[in-house]
Amino acid sequence: MTDVTLSAGAALLARLKTVGVDYIFANSGTDFPPIIEGLAEAAAKDIALPRALTIPHEHAAMGMAHGYYLASGRAQAVIAHTNVGLANCAIGALNAHVEHVPILLFSGRTPTVEKGRFGARTVPIGWGQEMRDQTSLVREASKWDYELRFPEQVTELVDRAHAIASSSPRGPVYVSLPREVLCEPCPAEFLDTSPSMTAHGLHASPGDLAGLAARIARAKLPVIFAQHGAGSAEGFAALARMTEAWGIPVCQYWAGQLALATDHPMCTSWDPAPLLAEADLVICLGVLAPWMPDAHTPQPDAFVVQLGPNPLSIRTPIRNFRADMAIAADTGPALVALEQALSEHKPDAAVRARFERVAARNQQDRAQALAAAAPDDAPGMTKAQIARALSDALEGDHATVLSELGCPMPPMRLTHHQAWYQEPHAGGLGWSLPAAMGMQLADPDRLIVATMGDGTYMFANPVVCHQIAEALELPILIIVLNNAEWGAVRQSVLGLYPEGHAARANQVPLTGLQPSPDFTLVARASRALAFRAESRAEFTEKLDQALAHVRARKGAALIDVSTRP
């Protein structure tokens, strides 16, 4: 691009393409003229850019970027409108931060001058949207932040933002973009050069892995807790082989991602208590909270290992789980290397006996979970029954299921490392629907199913999400498990006050969502196929129709199914 000059807005977009960004999820505002003109300018000059998508709400933009990364492993960009758009990004930034999902988050900044410079303030909101510290809206959720000061910074600034976001432990970064800076001319000679810096991973030392392997080999009752998957397909396969060979149960307590197939002989129930009561070696694999300290605790003489990209969760103020050994490493490569280190040891008869004992217990627990999800004659369906019916219908598909207070994991048969995602531990609701759309965008041939409660469906801003799904022709299946209440809040109240006034009266204030809207009308407004199901027979019939619709890539489909406790 020698002797070519672009606006800084166009240069920013072009550099995002160079570092590997495929999509820009954007909701525009009055600070966007240099961005929009930059898109047109780059097209006129035949300069490659990421595909820019109009996303009518920033929460959806953040969820789509999150889901795109889960499916592809590549960080994407979100551009929002000044402080108000950035405020709408905050929940998504919190979700991405807690889940170590890299997102390049940008927002405009109201022009810093009132006159005398191209791009200066031209409308009253230029004053109304000014903040002393706009970045404070997302600073705690960002690994790094900056404000573009001069147009010649664009190339190195984008390189640095992408490298930091994509380095372990991964996470979102934020850059504010003053309008008048984006309007300035920028030399383009370096825009298509290789990035000036690259992301780094984290790798466990051979000594640490050898020491951990030796502890596994001599442990009497080891256990693994996993919450954020196994890191990769290779890590998933290594964990499956390793735990089977060494008879190590894996507890996926409050898992956000699958680490071990649900039908694997070492996949245990969600209850940490019996495992911690006997374990002499506890390995916490990429976990935030492996158990609840007021209910569970390891044995005093147990050896506790924290392994993952952020083993001590250093940006979480209070997290006092033991770490007799902390190994900072990307989970997938660490599991592959640990399996290799274990090849220096040979399982003995005691290990084989442990495997048989643990496998028998797990088989019994799984049978009970499936029995609890079996059909019955009661009106409506439980979440477990819906999950089992969905799992049966997906048999043979290389599908991905997202659950946001939706279908629970235990009754489902989930067999690959991208089979399952649950809502982020940050608790920013409305995540699964836009995340499913982002995953579908990244992997068009995969069947994506987003399951959620009725409250979380409303949090997702469904009118916006359905509009996006229609505009981008995204054939996702949406299942709303509708109990007409904040079920999670109800359970939290009853858990803390089992004999309290709310429990005795069976009336839990501030949890009701009645009357329930007709969600099928919301979906049909954007030409989605939509059904309401009140019974198991209706649900299975409509599920078959909805799956046929999305498999044929005819668009999105929604089933609003009535649920009971």
UniProtKB/TrEMBL annotation:
Similarity comment: family membership: Belongs to the TPP enzyme family.
InterPro entries: DHS-like_NAD/FAD-binding_dom (IPR029035), THDP-binding (IPR029061), Thiamin_PyroP_enz_cen_dom (IPR012000), Thiamin_PyroP_enz_TPP-bd_dom (IPR012001), TPP_enz (IPR045229), TPP_enzyme_TPP-bd (IPR011766)
Name of this chain's protein: Acetolactate synthase
GO molecular function term, any single one: acetolactate synthase activity
Gene3D superfamilies xref list: 3.40.50.970, TPP-binding domain
CDD domains listed in its UniProt record: TPP_BFDC, TPP_PYR_POX_like
Keyword NAD in annotation: no
Residue ranges constituting the Thiamine pyrophosphate enzyme central domain according to the UniProt record: 211-338
Residues of the Thiamine pyrophosphate enzyme TPP-binding domain: 414-561
One annotated GO biological process: isoleucine biosynthetic process
Domain Thiamine pyrophosphate enzyme N-terminal TPP-binding: 8-129
SUPFAM superfamilies: DHS-like NAD/FAD-binding domain (SSF52467), Thiamin diphosphate-binding fold (THDP-binding) (SSF52518)
Keywords annotated in UniProt: Thiamine pyrophosphate
Gene Ontology CC: one annotated term: acetolactate synthase complex
